[in-house]
Design brief:
It is built from 28 helices and 26 strands. The protein is about 50% helix and about 20% strand. The C terminus is likely disordered. Strands 14-26-25-24-15-22-23 form a seven-stranded mixed β-sheet, sandwiched between helices. The protein is an alpha+beta fold. α13 runs parallel beside α27 and α14 runs antiparallel to α26. About 45% of the residues are buried.
Length: about 725
């Protein structure tokens, strides 16, 4: 199976996107297709043995749209200005049409020539509007052929019925037949649908802003240093391993590693954190971050699609293309809704004819029902809210990889935290060394540091930092092996070294005569790393870690909201309990292997808990994937971030509270949108059928098109209200 993300041109409303999605999902070799109307793209999961990329693009073409190739960035609509000019022209025509139909100047009714001129003008203008709305007619016809009738199908049948009926009554010249002309209805319906789509387009553009701003972050040029000379090049000319220069005030062109210099960097566009970050030689820099105060030379590591920004945009777009469970309501209803409306419109027209009403009355009701029942607002209710919420998360340093997270997060009642790197900074320091060998402290730490430099575990930072600070060269390590949840082993200068916890010693059959001595260090809240060869313990080292800022505050607020925090760690129980006591966690599960972490999550879920797992290590990956929501810190390993549904781009656990609040507001917003969409159709369809006519309330096709446009705009404006959420202050977070 292969996944591809294609940009699509020509989708103007939910009817288009929904029709394309249904059509693609019917094709052989396509497992799943998700169309995103707001971002104008489609994610397709397909069997590359059965279907080629060119075939996928051909399917899109047959459905009435155009593939623009693989998604690269969010496009600005290039046709916008031209379409607006055309719309302004038709606005003038619509104004003129409204004037002559409402006021019927005397010249048109005085004689035969005037009546002929009047009918000819109406016919000509209606024909122009039909040409203007040919995309609606084309989409309606194609979706009918593909057996996926949609909004455009309803409108097409309605306006063409109105036009053909008027055309039939155009030829008798007598004045009474003016009453049977509905050319203006044909024109006004198309005009107001176009107006609605222009307003929808403007609103949808606003929902893209947060993602578009990311794309604009990266500078277009950089300074390349080669053979001692500096040269300004475009970003497309940069290759991996190139040496680039950044001076104070400049943006980093690509992701890279600092080779020379140090500086403070503004990474707020990714993390949402305004405080500058200090970086030195060996630290990674991100494309788009601003160099505040230093001269930097850095090596290009990730360029183009591999960059952090490109990856973030891709993940956000893919997340927007997935659907939250609540969206299935709209999809299910719309699948039955259009055929039902068609039947209802035909039956209403037939009913009026049987009761002896004039034919034009039945045609009028038929057209009005088809137009007023368009399910556009129903289809926009969920995707618009999701895209706005995704952008809001992104602005606050929260990268959501699956849209369903935005529905699930509000239900969370248990948050399970890994300790090292999640509740603590994961940048521990060596607090005490108990050397039981004849080796000097420097030699001992050189070999331990060399071995730990190959590990991804946060504790390894304590040793690698020591080597850097003391400027000690690393030794070559052979036969390196990581035992997840236990420790690491490898050969240095022919001798096997074993580093890890007490369980690691047991695995290799090494006796531990220092249990009591190590226990006193454990009671102080330190972690213990045993150093051994294949025969005996050479040393044990006490590692101290620092609790993250705001951790205690976040845990307190979770408990206030009846969300239980749990610490789940592979560390020693005494260490875990000491940290838990400091930050206020009552439930602690310690000395747990990775496989057991997964079992703990499964057990909690069996107890009907809705679980969020927060971790950042390789050993957390299975648990992250098992939880209802897996959340990883951006500083975590690649495997942990791949397994997670959410990535916090800054070292601040308050992002969990922000995610829950955004989830609550998003689900509420979607429910409001769905309510108004349903309420609109429930109210308007009976009105279009004439049920309220005895009370003097009735609809014409023109008024129906205005009402349909208004319903879509209501949903759009309601979705955009999410952008006004204030997540910055602690006060706001507390009021979740």
């Amino acid at each position: 199976m292969k996944k591809i993300l294609l940009s699509v041109e020509g989708m103007t409303c939910f009817a288009c996107s929904n029709g394309l999605e249904k059509y693609l999902n019917k094709q052989k070799g396509i497992f799943e297709a998700h169309v995103n109307l707001v971002l104008s793209n489609v994610t397709i999961l397909y069997d590359e043995k059965l279907v080629k990329k060119s075939s996928l693009e051909e399917y899109i073409k047959k459905a009435g749209f155009q593939s623009l190739g693989e998604f690269k960035e969010i496009r600005k609509e290039t046709k916008g200005k031209k379409e607006k000019k055309i719309f302004y022209f038709f606005t003038i025509l619509a104004g003129f049409l409204m004037y002559i139909t409402m006021f019927l100047p005397p010249f048109f009714k005085e004689n035969k020539e005037g009546i002929i001129l009047y009918k000819s003008i109406l016919f000509f203008l209606a024909l122009l509007f039909l040409i203007y709305g040919r995309d609606i007619l084309k989409n309606g016809y194609k979706n009918l052929i593909h057996k996926t009738p949609n909004m455009d199908t309803l409108v097409s049948i309605g306006v063409l019925s109105s036009f053909l009926y008027s055309l039939y009554h155009m030829f008798p010249i007598e004045k009474p037949y003016l009453e049977n002309l509905y050319f203006e209805s044909t024109a006004f319906v198309i005009y107001f649908i176009k107006l609605g789509r222009i307003l929808e387009g403007m609103s949808k553009d606003k929902t893209k802003e947060a993602i578009q701003n990311l794309v604009k972050i990266t500078p277009q040029e950089a300074i390349l240093k080669k053979d001692g000379k500096e040269k300004r090049v475009t970003i497309d000319e940069i290759k991996k391993k190139d040496l680039l220069i950044s001076r104070p005030g400049e943006k980093m062109a690509v992701d890279g590693e600092i080779i020379t210099g140090e500086a403070h960097f503004d990474e707020s566009f990714i993390t949402g954190e305004s405080k500058p970050v200090f970086k030195k030689v060996g630290d990674k820099v991100v494309a788009g971050s601003i160099n505040y105060d230093g001269y930097i030379e850095y090596e290009a590591l990730k360029i183009g699609k591999e960059s952090t920004i490109s990856e973030m945009v891709r993940l956000v777009v893919e997340a927007s293309n997935t659907k939250v469970p609540i969206a299935k309501i709209a999809d299910t209803i719309s699948g039955y809704f259009v055929p039902l409306v068609l039947c209802l419109a035909f039956l209403t027209a037939l009913f009026y004819w049987i009761l002896g009403f004039p034919l034009q009355e039945g045609i009028n009701r038929f057209t009005t029902i088809l137009i007023v029942a368009c399910p556009c607002s129903l289809g926009l209710a969920t995707p618009l809210a999701i895209v706005v919420a995704e952008g809001l998360c992104l602005q606050n340093g929260i990268l959501v990889k699956k849209a369903e997270v935005l529905q699930t997060a509000k239900k969370i009642n248990t948050v399970v935290f890994d300790k090292t790197g999640t509740l603590t900074y994961g940048k521990p320091k060596i607090s005490e060394i108990k050397n039981k060998s004849e080796l000097s402290k420097e030699v001992l730490l050189q070999k331990v540091g060399s071995l730990e430099s190959l590990s991804n575990h946060p504790i390894a930072n304590a040793f690698t930092s020591y080597l850097k600070e003391e400027k000690i060269e690393k030794k070559e390590v052979q036969e390196f092996e990581s035992r997840i949840g236990l420790g690491i082993t490898g050969k240095i200068e022919g001798e096997r070294w074993i580093l890890g916890n007490a369980k690691m010693l047991e695995k290799y059959g090494i006796k531990n005569p220092y249990r009591k001595e190590a226990a006193s260090l454990l009671e102080q809240g330190n972690s213990i790393v045993y150093v051994a060869n294949e025969e005996k313990i050479l040393a044990f080292i006490s590692i101290d870690d620092i609790v993250k800022e705001n951790t205690k505050e976040v845990l307190l607020q979770l408990k206030e909201k009846q969300i239980e925090p749990v610490m789940l760690t592979g560390d020693h129980e005494k260490v875990a309990l000491k940290i838990a006591e400091k930050i206020g966690i009552q439930k602690v599960i310690a000395e747990v292997l990775p496989s057991s972490k997964t079992q703990v999550i499964k057990k909690l879920k069996q107890e009907k808990k809705v679980v969020m797992m927060c971790g950042d290590g390789i050993n957390d990956s299975p648990a992250l994937a098992t939880a209802d929501i897996g959340l990883s810190m951006q500083s975590g390993t690649d495997i942990a971030m791949d397994s997670a549904d959410v990535i916090l781009m800054k070292e601040d656990l308050r992002g969990i509270l922000q995610l829950i609040k955004i989830s609550q507001r998003t689900v509420r917003n979607i429910k409001q949108n769905l309510f108004w969409a349903f309420f609109y159709n429930i109210l308007m369809i009976p009105m279009a059928m004439g049920m309220f006519a005895p009370f003097g309330i009735s609809l014409t096709p023109m008024l129906a098109s205005i009402a349909m446009t208004f319903s879509s705009i209501t949903v759009l404006l309601n979705a955009l209200r999410l952008k006004k959420m204030n997540l910055a202050s602690n006060k706001t977070i507390k009021n979740i």
